Structure formats: structure tokens, C-alpha cells
């Protein structure tokens, strides 16, 4: 799992202005580092569907937000995601913590969350990359920059 300070640095280097999130699971450990990052504004939401609406407003206002949530939150946010990305055509970027992904690979969990994340990203036609401990955190920033340059939605899935 990436250190919060590394994630904050990568997001700042990529030009992210706001992190809209519901801190959860492993991603929640980034809270202190993201809160301390002077060039990032954290916006904590109550529900994941709300995150897409808040990020949409920020993007419309000329900011560069990133949404961070866990895989179950991605499932919950489907209608808001659809509305922002496809009805409004906003190029929002999401970082998704894929709970139990490492345990599923090891055959030590029955958690269905990691089974459905990639098929859902494909169904929503959201370009994404999967990051695990073998890849550098700079890949997160690179994918954000690529999506922004192409004016399209994108995502990074973080194997937890």
C-alpha cells in the first residue's frame, strides 16, 4: 500500500486541487498526509454518490478534483457517476481502493468486492489502471495527467 505522503505528493505534482472522498479501509490511512498537503483541499462527503456531485461542481468551477473511495462506494455511486460522466460529460477522475484484492489473489477471501470492480469499470467504459505494490505511485499521477490531457474520465484501482 502506498504511503499517504507519497500519494499527496503525486496528486500535487499532477495538478490536483481537491480530493473529494469518504476515507475508508486502507485509503483512510492517507488522511493525515492529505490533510497536511498545503496545495490540496480535502472535501469529505457522507455518501459516495455525493462525491461525484461535489467533484462535478468543483470541475465546473474550474478546479481539478479527484474522487477517492472504496470499491463498495463505487457500487453505491453508480447513478451519480453515470450522470456526471455521461449525461454531463465531465472528465472526472477516481481512485478506487479495491478491498480484499490481494486476499482474492491469494485465495484467502470470499469477499465479492474485488470480483466486480473491473467488470463495472469496463461496463461504464471508464479507462483505468490497476496499481499494486509492484508499481510506483507515480503511475497514479501519470494516469491522472493522461486522462486530463485527453479530457476524459479515468480511474486508478488500488489493490488492497
Nutshell version of this structure?
The protein is of the alpha/beta class and 160 residues long.
Indicate the topology:
Layout: H1 4-14, E1 18-21, H2 31-36, E2 41-44, H3 48-60, E3 65-70, H4 71-76, H5 78-87, E4 93-98, H6 101-106, H7 113-123, E5 128-131, H8 138-149, E6 154-159
Parallel strand pairs: 1-2, 1-3, 3-4, 4-6, 5-6
Task: Spell out the key features of this protein.
160 residues, alpha/beta, Rossmann fold, 8 helices, 6 strands, globular
Tell me what you see in this structure:
The structure is a single chain. The protein has 160 residues and is α/β, with parallel strands linked by helices. The protein has a single domain (4-159), classed as 3-Layer(aba) Sandwich (Rossmann fold), CATH 3.40.50. It is 47% helix and 19% strand. The chain has helices at 4-14, 31-36, 48-60, 71-76, 78-87, 101-106, 113-123, 138-149, and strands at 18-21, 41-44, 65-70, 93-98, 128-131, 154-159. Strands 2-1-3-4-6-5 form a six-stranded parallel β-sheet, sandwiched between helices. Strand 5 (128-131), helix 8 (138-149) and strand 6 (154-159) form a beta-alpha-beta unit. Helix 1 (4-14) packs parallel to helix 8 (138-149) and helix 3 (48-60) packs parallel to helix 5. The model has no long low-confidence stretch (mean pLDDT 93).
